[in-house]
Amino acid sequence: MGELVEFIVRSRNFILFLLLEVICFYFIINTNNYWSASFFNTSNAYAAQMLTWSNSVQAYTRLRDVNAELAAENRKLHEELTRLQQGHPVAPTAYQADTVFANRFAYKVAKVTNNTTQYANNYITIDKGTDDGIQPGMGVISPTGVVGRVKLCSANFSVVTSILHSEFRVSSKLIRAADIGTAKWDGVDPHQMKLLDISRYKPVYKGDSVVTSEHNSVFPPGILVGRVRTIGVQPNMTFHDITIDLSTNFSNLSFVYVVNNKLRQEQEQLEKQIENEK
Description:
Blueprint lengths: L1 H9 L1 H20 L1 H29 L1 H25 L11 H4 L2 E11 L5 E6 L12 E4 L2 E9 L4 E8 L3 E6 L5 E5 L7 E5 L12 E4 L11 E10 L6 E7 L8 E7 L2 H14 L1
Antiparallel strand pairs: 1-2, 1-12, 2-5, 3-4, 3-12, 4-5, 6-7, 6-9, 7-8, 8-11, 9-10, 10-11
């Protein structure tokens, strides 16, 4: 307290000067219409600018919550879209899936906590594990396409085999050509992969969409894998040499969706019995 009094006494002339300046400024503003209007407009402009900055900071700090809300909403839309596609196929057919089959895919939102793209065999870590119902073998997709397949799980985390892995393959279909092949990464460019086993006698078009086919139990059919970039034919080869641009940008993955095919175990057990009888 003594130091404060000593500071005031020592600086009394400067404090008196500031006080007189404030009083003069007050009288100028309140007795002169021009300066009053100028002060009002200027103060409002600065206040508006400060409010804009404050709102921008608040909006930025809420981006994580907004992204999480959007991911949850996209999960619901994925489930609804898959259910509708399975119950009412696009192709004209008399077949109609029953309710159990049409509703067999469920989705769970997860956040990417680690991701590699620079190796021959790449993996992704997500923040959901067995406590959240995640199990090895489940498919993983992003809002833009196929991501990979769950390999290992702990209580709170899971490791996903990325589509950018030398041993990862996914049954895929060309939309326009209506032919089914296998999408596989060649270990070179993390933005591209190969589409194998497409007959050279089938017409293939640059820019055609490549989606997951009905011939797998991991991903729902119709999930985008990429689009045809180049088409070549090697001499004396039976199949096209097709390169596709991946639809998912793995360098900025944030939220993903883990796909649970509730009928996958039943299907795979039945198919395994057939294999054992061969």
